[in-house]
Amino acid sequence: RPGLALCVGCGGRIQDPFLLRVSPDLEWHVACLKCAECGQPLDETCTCFLRDGKTYCKRDYSRLFGIKCAQCRAAFSSSDLVMRARDHVYHLECFRCAACGRQLLPGDQFCLRERDLLCRADHGPPHDGTAARGPRSP
């Protein structure tokens, strides 16, 4: 199909012997397919991500659009184990009580108040049976 396709990047006719196809029907000159953020050429040797009509390298796509830890705001790698609380996702090391700093482990009871995780000791009712007035400080 060279000579018949129009490049999504520059709008020109692709008459080169090779073209790059992104998604099922977006075609590019080899020289035009670049990361919209850093300008890195995107070819058959690297992963290309498409969002809102723009192309991104894997690093920039993850940085801009990837899920980030609710505590440290850093992105996750594909090998990270995570903990979830409602819509929030945390690195294992970041999944800690905001009041006492204790790391919360799978099976631990906790409370999520706004953005703060609280362990059972810091969100539960006092041990003497009186009504709780809110989270207790250590």
Structure notes:
The protein is mainly β. It has two domains: 1-66, Cysteine Rich Protein, CATH 2.10.110.10; 67-123, Cysteine Rich Protein (Ribbon). 9% of the residues lie in helices and 22% in strands. The protein is built from two helices and eight strands. The protein has helices spanning 58-65, 120-123; strands at residues 20-22, 26-28, 48-51, 54-57, 82-85, 88-91, 110-113, 116-119. The chain has a two-stranded antiparallel ribbon with strand order 1-2. The protein has a two-stranded antiparallel sheet with strand order 3-4. The protein is rod-shaped. It starts with 19 loop residues before the first strand and ends in a 15-residue tail after the last helix. Mean pLDDT is 82; it is low at 128-138.
List keywords for this structure.
8 strands, ISL1/2-like, 138 residues, single chain, two-stranded antiparallel ribbon, Cysteine Rich Protein, two-stranded antiparallel sheet, mainly beta, disordered C terminus, 22% strand, rod-shaped, cis-regulatory region sequence-specific DNA binding, 2 helices
